[in-house]
Amino acid sequence: MQVAGFALIPLDISDFPTRHNRGLALTQNHIERILAAWVEELGVPIYRGREVTSFIQEDAGVDVTVSDGSSLRAQYLVGCDGGRSLIRKQAGIAFAGWDPSVSYLIAEADMAEEPVWGVRLGEKGINALAKFDGTRVRMVLIEPHVVHGDEPTLGELRAALSAVYGTDFGVHNVTWLSRFSDMARQAESYRERRVLLAGDAAHVHSPAGGQGLNIGVQDAVNLGWKLAQVIQGTSPESLLDTYQSERHPIGARVLKNTLAQTALARGDERTRALHERFTELLQLDEPRKRYAGMMSGLDVSYDLGVGHPLLGRRMPDLDLVTEGGSRRVFSLLHDARPVLINLAEPGALDSAPWANRLQHVDARYAGAWELPVLGVVASPSAVLIRPDGYVAWVGDGTDQGLRAALTTWFGAPGLL
Ligand SMILES: Cc1cc2nc3c(=O)[nH]c(=O)nc-3n(C[C@H](O)[C@H](O)[C@H](O)COP(=O)(O)OP(=O)(O)OC[C@H]3O[C@@H](n4cnc5c(N)ncnc54)[C@H](O)[C@@H]3O)c2cc1C
Q: Which residue from 156, 196, 220, 252 has the least number of CB within 10 angstroms?
């Protein structure tokens, strides 16, 4: 359904040029289950029930100590260990930003009395009580004062209910109780030599707009193939610097938009008036598209130099015609290898020196090239797509710049 929104102002993306022009509600336990199954399919071991307790960085690798007393040797260590990341702290990476202005309780429970269902606006934002599974209640409540720490008590839940509704509705049988806030912090660096950070370890912010998991997964997808190439020796270590230069600005932008959303969610009359004006503004086509592009993450673009608007942007999932039949562009990305799509005469481009690490596809495409937010762009004669789905080079009828782009992103020719 259409769930993209800014400060709870709905943003319709049904006219976006993407196959998935809507939100898909998939709870995080399912996302984790699906990703874990995929990791297993790739034969990568997962050591469950063991925590990293410390690590030592050396010139050639990282020695990682885990809670059962054993140790692991790695060439690189990626801290995906959440907002309180031990990896980030031990690497000495600063986590700069803004302290929380509001803290929330989120809970699932029974109530002896019928509560007031739906949304109730408070001074600092929104409270909500929703029916779940027939009789159970799921709730999000603003706490009377900002509280730190992630182990709230039943007493605190009762106090928050009473502060908002004047009664705790006889809340009992609490099966889930947690706390979150609008604290916004970002790692100053996503890399410290052989240690890298991704996901909440690199950035935390208010859940407004549901962006955290999304950008965390994008971090990992941006980093994965680069790290693989460095480990395999096809690319120099400097390729990892582009992880910072590409992903840090995206995280910084998300932090700022969550600060703005928290401010706009306040319940005083002046802020409500501002929210109403903003709602009007976001009904206009151009602002709606811009904000929907930002909130859905479909407008992400990396600064890969000047040139065609496709450069540094997410490749559209076009239906190509190839010698072997019709192919969707995204199906070509399933192997997580770079793809060169030549849309001119077959054989017009020479990528032979990179043949061992590149898929070269001769194809035809007659339709329009339309990008989210930007609209229709000039049809290119060829595109080079990175394994993360972003365009690294655009052909203008010649192969000018192709060798340089191949070398920059996928290493010098014939190395492996
Ligand atoms: C109320 C709420 C609603 C949200 N809604 C959305 C939404 O709709 N859409 C969205 O995109 N995002 C949403 N988010 C944000 C999203 O939940 C987070 O951004 C996401 O969970 C971050 O994933 P992560 O893997 O980086 O970190 P985490 O989910 O925190 O996972 C870190 C993992 O590392 C493990 N770990 C920690 N320390 C160690 C250690 N020393 N050794 C080994 N393992 C360790 C932990 O056990 C945990 O499994 C929401 C957040 C909140 C609070």
A: 252
* Number of CB atoms found within 10 A of residue 57's CB: 16
Sign of the CA dihedral with 386 first, then 390, 395, and 401 last = negative
Q: Is 182 in the pocket of ligand 1 (CB under 6 A)?
A: no
Q: How far apart are the first and last CA of the chain?
A: 46
Residue given tokens 């992630």 in the structure block: 150
Interval 55-77: pLDDT, tens: 999 999 999 999 999 999 999 99
For residue 391, what are the β-bridge partners?
385
pLDDT in tens, 292-345: 999 999 999 999 999 999 999 999 999 999 999 999 999 999 999 999 999 999
Q: CA-CA-CA-CA torsion for 191, 291, 128, 101, nearest 10 degrees? A: 50
What does the pLDDT look like over 243-269, one tens digit per residue? 999 999 999 999 999 999 999 999 999
- Do the strands 62-66 and 52-57 form a parallel or antiparallel pair, or are they unpaired? antiparallel
Distance from C-alpha of 315 to C-alpha of 233, rounded to nearest angstrom: 27
Tokens of 24: 């898909």
- pLDDT per position as a tens digit, 211-225: 999 999 999 999 999
- CA nearest ligand 1 atom 5, residue: 210
Instruction: Tell me how long the chain is.
Output: 416
For tokens 């789905």, what's the residue?
389
What is the residue whose two structure tokens read 């549901």? 210
Residue 291 host element (H or E)? helix 285-296
CA 159–ligand 1 middle distance (angstroms): 27
